[in-house]
Structures are given as structure tokens and as C-alpha cells.
UniProtKB/TrEMBL annotation:
Binding locations of substrate: 15, 32, 43, 91
A molecular function GO annotation: chorismate mutase activity
The name this protein goes by in its record: chorismate mutase
Key words, A-Z: Isomerase
Source organism superkingdom: Bacteria
Domain Chorismate mutase: residue ranges: 5-95
Organism, as annotated: Aurantiacibacter aquimixticola
Gene Ontology biological-process annotations: chorismate metabolic process; salicylic acid biosynthetic process
EC number(s) on file: 5.4.99.5
UniProt cross-references to InterPro entries, sorted A to Z: Chorismate_II_sf, Chorismate_mutase-related, CM_dom_sf, CM_II_prokaryot, Isochorismate_pyruvate-lyase
Length: 100
């Protein structure tokens, strides 16, 4: 179990913590993409895959949460923009594959 950031006293400990956190993030993203597969399965029409209102809401919520926890909201906004666009592309791919 890696040390928490405030308890680290060496770069080895910092790197172990970063690597462990990255593994957790990938696991969480795998679950998020699972929801994209579910959305592709549930949505009846391909034209419902892209929802700009929902996209804006998701990004705004991520930025607000970033501000709440004290990390750079602009960085989180950029990350979430890419994440949501990648999720939409993935959902299109899954929608097409399951209807072919």
C-alpha cells in the first residue's frame, strides 16, 4: 500500500503512489467505459449517442468538483473534454458493432 502524499519522504514513495493511483484511475475508467457500452446497448437510435447538453453538464460537474477539492479546474476540464469525446467515439463504435 503506497503512502499518502503528505506522508511521502522520498521520490520513490511519490512514484509508487503515482503508479498505484494511475492503476486505480484506469480501473475506474474501465468501469466508466462499461457504462458507455451499456448506453450503446440501451440507446435505440445512433443519433442519440452524441448529447451536447449532457457533455457540457458532465464537464461542468467535473470542473466544479475539481474546484471543490482544490485542484486545477482548467486541467480537469481539458482532461474531461478528451475523456467525454473519447467516450462518445467508443459508444459510436460499440453501437455500430452491436447493430451490424
Amino acid at each position: 500500500m503506497p503512502k499518502m502524499p503528505d506522508d511521502c519522504t522520498s521520490m520513490t514513495e511519490v512514484r509508487e503512489g503515482v503508479d498505484a493511483t494511475d492503476r486505480e484511475l484506469v480501473s475506474l475508467l474501465a468501469r466508466r467505459f462499461g457504462y458507455m457500452r451499456a448506453a450503446a446497448r440501451i440507446k435505440p437510435n445512433r443519433d442519440t449517442v452524441r448529447d451536447e447538453k449532457r457533455k457540457a453538464s458532465v464537464i461542468a460537474a467535473a470542473k466544479a468538483e475539481a474546484e471543490r477539492v482544490g485542484i486545477p479546474a482548467d486541467v480537469i476540464g481539458d482532461v474531461w473534454e478528451r475523456l467525454v469525446e473519447g467516450s462518445i467515439a467508443y459508444e459510436f463504435d460499440v453501437w455500430d458493432e452491436t447493430r451490424a
